[in-house]
Amino acid sequence: MNRSQTSGIRQAITRSIPSRRDLLRCQSGIALTEFAMAFPILLIFATSGLELTNYALTVKRVGELAVMVSDNASRMGAQSAINNKPVSEAEINDVFIGADLQAANLNLSQKGKIVLSSLQRNEDGGQTIKWQRCFGGGAYQSAYGPEGTGATGTSFVGMGPEDHEVTAAAGTAVMVVEIHYTYKRLMPIITLPLHDITEFSAYNVRDSRDITQVYNTENVTPSTCT
Question: Which stretches are transmembrane (predicted)?
């Protein structure tokens, strides 16, 4: 190979390698580079938004479920033309079964707990939890005390938020429902301050009810909270 051929090859190689100035001016891959840098941030925003939306919907569903349970519990009691309507353990169990069916994919029996309390007046004119029944697999206990709380005296002021407690009038009862639900994140890799959900609802009983006790003529297993 003579000198002129070598020189030609060298010039061809030099022309094929872009200069530093050409590299600095080149913008052909800038969009892809920007997308690669922004994608993790966009992914965090998208997954966080999805998580927050799911959490808000879950809170709404649990709240609606609490209202439904307290409403249904307020309607319990076998019709009687001569006596006040008695409440049975079977009816309480039916209310819980209906709540579990309504909850559907919330898996309430494993991830949550329903606490149903009958708030009534005691003989001293104070408030008492006459009876209390539970459904679900959670370890949650009523924030206002177990069955028998306030049986005597007037120190137990009622159930509900402080300074806004629900109270029962003489001769009637209030069906108080607490639902505690353990929220499981959709995206466990995203750290958001999402706490377990606790909802409260209360309905006064709808008709004249026998509030002296819960009957069990059907011999079913009571849904006790122990």
Answer: 29-50
- Name the token pair of 153: 């005296």
C-alpha 119/C-alpha 63 separation (Å) is: 20
Q: What is the DSSP letter of 166?
A: B
> How confident is the prediction along the chain (226 residues), in pLDDT tens digits per residue?
555 555 555 555 455 555 556 655 666 666 666 666 766 776 666 677 788 889 999 999 999 999 999 999 999 987 766 678 889 999 999 999 999 999 988 988 899 999 999 999 999 999 999 999 999 987 899 999 999 999 999 999 999 999 899 999 999 999 999 999 999 888 766 677 789 999 999 999 988 888 999 999 999 999 999 7
Of 224, 127, 225, which Cα lies nearest the Cα of 172? 127
Instruction: Assess contact for 172 and 209: CB atoms under 8 A.
Output: yes
Q: What is the DSSP letter of 52?
A: H
Q: What angle do CA 157, 175, 137 make, to 5 degrees?
A: 100
Cβ neighbours around 54 below 10 Å, total: 16
Per DSSP (E only), the strands in the chain are: 85-88, 112-121, 127-136, 173-181, 197-204, 209-215
Based on DSSP, count helices (H) and strands (E) in the chain, helices before strands. 5, 6
Q: Chain-centre distance of CA 129, in angstroms?
A: 24
At residue 142, what is the residue type?
Answer: S
**Closest residue by Cα to residue 201 from 112, 69, 57:** 69
